[in-house]
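# nightly structure sweep
# worker-07 picked up a monomer target from the shared queue
# config: single-sequence mode, recycle default, output format = C-alpha cells
# input follows
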Amino acid sequence: MSTPESHDPLTPIPQTSDRGIGALASRVTVVGTHIVKWLVLGSVVGVLAGLSSAAFLATLNWATDVREDFPWLLWLLPVAGLVMGLIYHYGGGDAAAGNNLILDEIHEPRDWVPRRMAPLIYVGTVVTQLFGGSAGREGTALQMSGSLTDAFSRVVRLKPADRRIMLIAALAGGFGAVFGVPVAGFVFGLEVQSVGRLRYDALLAAVTASMIGDLVVTGIGVTHLATPEVIPVDLTMALVAKVILAGVIFGVTARLFIATTHLVRHLYERYGTWPPLRPFIGGIAIIGLTFLVGNRDYNGLSLPLITASLAGGVGVAAFAFAWKLVFTSVTLGSGFQGGEVTPLFVIGATLGVTLGGLLGVDPTLLAALGFVAVFAGAANVPITCIIMGTELFSSEGTVLFALVCVVAYLCSSNRGIYRSQRVVIPKVAPGSEDGSMWRGGG
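# output follows
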C-alpha cells in the first residue's frame, strides 16, 4: 500500500470511500500524523531559514554602509572577484551550481546538497555587495536555507520523498523570510520548481516554513524595505489597456534580462576564459560602467532607487532600468555571487516610473506593478508575484497586480532565471497559431 510519503505526486490516486468507524479512525490517524509531522519539520526549516536570513540581511546592511562610507572599495572589486572565483573554482564543487542544484534535487533526489554551499554563498554575496557588484538577496537566502535544511535531513536520515518536500519548504522559508512576504513565500516554493505546476504535496511544509521563517526574522528585529500602499484606483477600460501594454513591456524586459545575463556567460565560455578570471574581468567592467554613468546608484542592491520609484519617481532617470539591467547582467554573468530578484525589483520599479510618464499613469502605481511583474516574467512565478503585490502594496490593486503579472509571465519566455526549472505545461500550447513566438525559449 502506498503512503503519502512514497506516492508519486504526478500519479493519480484512485478515489475510495471511507465507510465504517474503523476506516474513519484510520483516516484520522493518517491525516493527524501527516499534519503533526510536517508542522514539526516545516518549523525546523523555518527556523533555519529565518536565522540564516536574519544574519544575512544584517550583514548586507553592514556591507552597504561600509561601501558607502569608503567609496574607494569599488577599485578592489576585480581582486575580490578573483579571490571568490578561485575559492569557488577549487573548493566550491557542486555548490557552484547554486539554486539550480536545489531544483535538480527536488526533481530527482540523488545526492545531498553540499554543506559548504551555505557559508560560500553567504561570504560570496557579502563580498559582491561590499565592493560594489550589482546582485540581489534571494539566491543567497534560498541556497543557505536549502543547504542547512538538507544537512538536517541528512542527520535525521529522511527518505528521498520527504527530503524533496523539505527542499521545497526550504525555498519557501528562504524567500518568505528574506523579503518579509510569508504568503508569497510559500507559494514561491510550490511554484518555482516547474513552469505550469504547483507542488501541493509540500503545501503544509511550505506554509509552515515560510510563516516561521518570517516570524524569526521579525522577532530578531531585522526590518525589510518599507513599501507604500497603492492608492485606490478606479478601474477603467483605458487604465486596463495601459496596464496590459505595460505588462507586455515588463515581460519583454524580463526576457531581455535573462538573455543578456546568459549572453555574458556564453561569451566567457566561448572564448575559454579561465573561470576564476571571469569575475576579475567583470569587476573591471563594473568599475568602467560606474564611471560611465557618473554615480553609484546601480552598485549593490540599489534599494534607494526602489524607494524613490515608489515615492513618485522624483530623481529616477528615464533609463535607470536599463542601467541596472546591464550592471546586474555583467555582475552575475561574470560569476559574482548573489541573487537576481532584488535587481529585478529595481528594474521593474524604475521601468514603471518611465512608463508612467509615457502612458499617463500614476508612476507610483506603475512602479509597484513593475516591481512584481518583471520578476513574475523572469522567474515564471506569476501567482507568487500577484500575492506579493497584495502583501507589499495592499489589496487595493489586486486586480491590476493579477493582470500585469499574468501578461508579463506570458510575454517572457519559458526559459527563466533558474535554468533547472522544468517546463511541465508551456505558456503557449504547441501548435497554437502564435506558439512560434517562444520557439527556443525553453
